[in-house]
Design goal:
The chain is mainly alpha-helical. The protein has a single domain (3-146), classed as Lysozyme. The chain has seven helices and two strands; from the N terminus they run H-H-E-E-H-H-H-H-H. It has helices at 3-11, 24-35, 55-60, 76-81, 84-98, 110-119, 129-146; strands at 43-44, 47-48. The protein has a two-stranded antiparallel ribbon. Helix 1 crosses helix 2 and helix 2 (24-35) packs across helix 7. It catalyses: Hydrolysis of (1->4)-beta-linkages between N-acetylmuramic acid and N-acetyl-D-glucosamine residues in a peptidoglycan and between N-acetyl-D-glucosamine residues in chitodextrins.
């Protein structure tokens, strides 16, 4: 399993708040599926950071910012989504707001969070050719996570 998944799992913790919507391991797999958790990934086609977050997504998540920053300042979006902690808070905020059973299996798990993240709030966006690759990378990561000792069946 990629070390980046384990590192991001630690990064994704939101200290001092209620339990996160997305498990730490699912968060790590979302990172792997989006950018291979490549910290050098900046922005491409309006999506930035480890999770490839867009400005509308960031705003829907509540426009989180890094410490001592202001969401209305120029560059606040990029400073946040290029910071692993703030990017993870952005994903958590988005998933908390749009929490949904996208695949209709009566449980909200990592597969649903992946669909929300990639397709948007209603899980109804049109998947492009990149969605298959994203889904394959996510499922590969999740399969590796399931091999870890003490891993449960759902994330």
């Amino acid at each position: 399993m990629c070390l980046a998944v384990l590192l991001l799992a630690a990064v994704s913790l939101v200290r001092g708040q209620s339990p996160p919507a997305v498990s730490e391991l699912c968060m790590g797999c979302l990172c792997e599926a989006n950018t291979n958790c490549d910290r050098s990934f900046r922005c491409e086609e309006g999506e930035c950071g480890l999770f490839r977050i867009s400005v509308p997504y960031w705003k829907d998540a509540g426009s989180p910012v890094i410490k001592d920053d202001n969401a209305t300042d120029d560059g606040a979006f990029q400073r946040c989504v290029l910071d692993p902690y703030c990017a993870a808070r952005t994903v958590q905020g988005y998933m908390t707001r749009f929490h949904k059973d996208c695949n209709g299996d009566k449980a909200v798990d990592c597969q649903d969070f992946a669909m929300l993240h990639y397709l948007g709030a209603g899980c109804e966006g049109d998947p492009d050719e990149g969605f298959g690759q994203f889904r394959a990378a996510l499922n590969e990561c999740l399969a590796e996570v399931m091999k870890l000792p003490g891993s449960s069946g759902r994330m």
